[in-house]
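User: If only I could read backbone structure tokens as easily as an amino acid sequence. Those tokens are not coordinates but codes from a learned vocabulary of shapes. Could you go through the record with me and say what the backbone is doing? Here is the record:
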Amino acid sequence: METSRLIDVSQENKVAVVVGVQLENDPSQVNDDLDELESLLETLGIRTEGRVVQKRSRLSSSHLLGKGKVEEIKEIAEEAHVGLIVFDHPLTGPQVRNLEKLIGRQVLDRSGVILDIFAKHAKTNQAKTQVEIAQLEYLLPRLSGAWTHFQRQAGGGVRARGMGEKQIEIDRRRARERIARLQKRLEGIRKERETQRKARRNEINVAIVGYTNSGKTTIMSGLTRATTEGKDELFATLDANIRTIDPTTRPKILLTDTVGFIRNLPHSLVDSFKSTLEEVVEADLLLHVVDVSHPNYLAQMETTEQVLKEIGGGEIPVILVFNKIDLVNEQFLTRILQKNYPGSITVSAYNLKDMVALKKHLFEYFESKFRQVDLIVTANDRNTLSQIYNTCIVIAADYETEGQVHFKVRAANHTLAKLAKFIIPDAVIVH
């Protein structure tokens, strides 16, 4: 199953003009947002030739910007032979139609670019299904505006006008039917993932979260000694990748690499990637990876925290991992971060010593949260004995009492809840 792309990938569309709207008196924020938009386009192999910003007190319902500014964009596009105009602000279907009519170029907004990156990086059936649902949800209200673009993709240039409302309604109906089929397929995938999660509930689950391109995959490789290398691309990881930190430790700690977050992540993507994001919501701990070398890393931290709240993960314990410290020249930044964010750690994902320190930091966190209890289990209850050895730190085990085993263990609260009927209040094991 191939995932289609929203951007007409003709040669001229490898060059774009980006457009921002300044609604408040903060031009630096608009420029930062456009910098990020240009980075998104770079991931698609599209370079930016021009940048246009208009300060507006209110947005035009027909063109978003004033017509004079739209004419300016058209002139820049013609002079620079640009085929793609990308707005950092969301566009409605009528706005897309009106802008394409005036400018004579394909027009897209920021959400469309993000969707195209997801389509580029979708490799598994699950990711492709999720991306296609998000694309169709995004396109449904915009089909009247985007229709000429799809005609061009079909070949033969822009056809004669006059296909009219009838063809648009047919296309919308087909899109809704396709969404329904894909959602049914995705529901089956979700049930499989839920079964897999149930099988992992005896282990400790840690999810790596953070802004896109913060180094999450490289951190995971460093902690698990996996051969997977992180890519210096936005949204390089779409599927939840799960590995064991150290197969020799008990209890076992599973680490999950997840899709990166970004400002104004399209709601259609959040909804479609629910089964992937559930790995985050079900975690016992989150490693929030922050690219501390990025000039706007504090804003990126806030975005990640906001998305976590939106998906229901706002109450999960978090360890902040400030990554890429090797790219920072500020001498006392590590000391400042550790003072401002107690329990955090600064690392370079490519530094072996830092990864060893992070792993130790992680183990010490769980050991500090574990509770010590005494258990008594029937000696022939192999399932429970296996559960104890796999999910608890066994401090002592006394097999001398006939038919029973006395344990002194340390374990997480959620593990002890499953062993509640075996816990002995105030029991003492004699060594």
